[in-house]
Amino acid sequence: MKYVNKSHLVFILITIALLVGKYTFSEGWGTDYYSNDPKDKTRLVTVEKHHLSEPFYKAYKSGNYFWAMDDLDFVLRWFPNHPEALSLVGVISIKTKKYSMAIKYFEKGTASFPKYEITWILYGDYCRNIKDYESAIENYNKALTINPNNVFVYEKLARIYEEVGKKNMSILMKNKVKELK
């Protein structure tokens, strides 16, 4: 019987470790973007420094969305509710007409940290931009459950209701805006 040499064994062990780590990590590990923990803040700075920096923006601006998405995917695996990364994923999804691509990131961000209205608002904005008005309304309403006095969300809802022909609901939202201002 042959024995495995050391270099093959090391290669096999590293491959297994990487596969296990990748599988486990992709299954939902993530840090809250808004965390006040100093370790999380340090991690955020490091991730942004390496993945939302000049090379990323150069790829993004030149239309090299494959490379840009690679960086955004990394950011959103570490910080699923990262607002800038979520917004950029939405823009790239629209520009590439791969509308479902962004949905998984928004779903993970809202599922991982549902208590932040901004994540729901960004998701609602994305849905509105792809003309999925029903989902946009649903996401804006979830934002309102967190902060029922957000004038901007009522304004967004008023516009959507107007666009889809629900004049009464639009008027109701506009009245709510006036009441809150």
What this model shows, in words?
This protein is globular. The protein has helices at residues 6-26, 38-51, 54-61, 65-78, 83-95, 99-112, 117-129, 133-146, 151-163, 167-180. Residues 21-28 have low confidence and may be disordered. The protein has 2 domains: 33-113; 123-181, Tetratricopeptide repeat domain (Serine Threonine Protein Phosphatase 5, Tetratricopeptide repeat, Alpha Horseshoe), CATH 1.25.40.10. It is mainly alpha-helical.
Keywords summarizing the entry:
about 180 residues; mainly alpha; Serine Threonine Protein Phosphatase 5, Tetratricopeptide repeat; 10 helices; globular
The secondary structure category is mainly alpha
How is the biggest beta sheet arranged?
Answer: none
Q: What is the approximate shape? A: globular
- Count of strand segments: 0
The end-to-end distance, rounded to whole angstroms, is: 81 Å
**C-alpha Rg, in Å?**
21 Å
* Number of domain modules: 2
Low-confidence sequence ranges: 21-28
- Averaging pLDDT over every residue, what do you get? 89
Q: Residue share in helices?
A: over 70%
